[in-house]
Design goal:
By secondary structure, the chain is an alpha/beta fold. It is 42% helix and 16% strand. Bound molecules: zinc ion.
């Protein structure tokens, strides 16, 4: 009898202290176990001109995000194929760069009037099905200017899209203008493939993993080079066992908890030299 009584008393005492701990706000001990896994967004840029390379990106494993150039011969077809395979589609909008590189159709420059600028961007969006967001192709010159970035965000906002700054200039105004209009937005953290040597790809990927683990998320941009696609094909399936979730850009941007936790990452990699970063 006595033993049972003691045991019951002990249990009651334990329950009481647990309840007390909860009241005192110690419930975060339980919440800590439910902290979200670090997330990685992988965006493949420059799709649309080459069907074979585009399809290789479309068939990457998992929710990779595809950024497709406007008015390209295979853009719509790749967007359809990607969408069917659960890939998120972005418009990869060509923007004026300091190197004077050709922009191609749908290119945006600072010489355009507001009306022309907005029409070209709208037509670019309309040229690709399933577009949910926009990032800039090149743009080291245009993104440094507040006014064209404001016009860009007017369209992004009006169409209910999100914006990812590819960050081809350290002086980019894109994110500030997006935030001023309350647009879901973030900057690219790491370029996978400025250098296509296997060791260089590995180094960039490791940097992305470090950022994800430290800040809770990372945005990695790669291109349709065969070496990049092969690298991602080999490495994306390993993310799960490393405790990293591969997510689409919108899944990251609209995840309020992640977005609030995420401070601005200081980029170790400078992108001021447009010749090194023609993307
Ligand atoms: Zn690009």
């Amino acid at each position: 009898m006595q033993k049972t009584f003691l045991s019951a008393t002990f249990t009651f005492a334990s329950l009481t202290s647990l309840a007390l701990l909860s009241l005192l706000g110690f419930s975060h001990l339980a919440a800590a176990e439910e902290e979200p896994q670090p997330a990685m967004v992988v965006i493949i840029d420059d799709l649309g001109d080459n069907l074979k390379k585009g399809l290789a990106a479309v068939h990457l494993p998992g929710p990779v995000t595809l950024a497709i150039m406007p008015h390209t011969p295979f853009g719509p077809r790749l967007a359809q194929a990607g969408h069917q395979l659960g890939k998120e589609i972005m418009l990869h909008a060509p923007m004026e760069n300091h190197a004077g590189m050709r922009l191609g159709p749908g290119g945006l420059t600072s010489q355009m009037s507001e009306t022309t600028f907005k029409k070209i961007l709208q037509d670019g969006i309309a040229s690709i099905p399933h577009v949910e967001g926009i990032n800039n192709h090149m743009g080291s010159a245009l993104t440094e200017k507040a006014q064209p970035m404001r016009w860009t965000m007017d369209i992004v906002s009006g169409q209910g899209l999100y914006f990812i700054d590819s960050r081809t200039s350290a002086k980019s105004q894109a994110l500030a203008q997006a935030q001023a209009q309350n647009i879901a937005s973030q900057s690219r953290d790491v370029f996978l493939d400025n250098d296509l040597a296997p060791a260089a790809l590995e180094k960039q990927f490791q940097q992305a993993l470090r950022i994800a683990n430290r800040y809770g998320s990372v945005i990695l941009i790669g291109h349709t080079y065969p070496a990049s696609i092969q690298f991602l094909q080999d490495n994306l399936p390993k993310l799960d066992e490393m405790g990293i979730r591969l997510v689409s850009a919108s899944a990251l941007l609209y995840d309020v908890e992640q977005a609030h936790q995420r401070p601005e990452v200081q980029l170790a990699q400078s992108n001021e030299d447009p010749n090194a970063h023609p993307h």
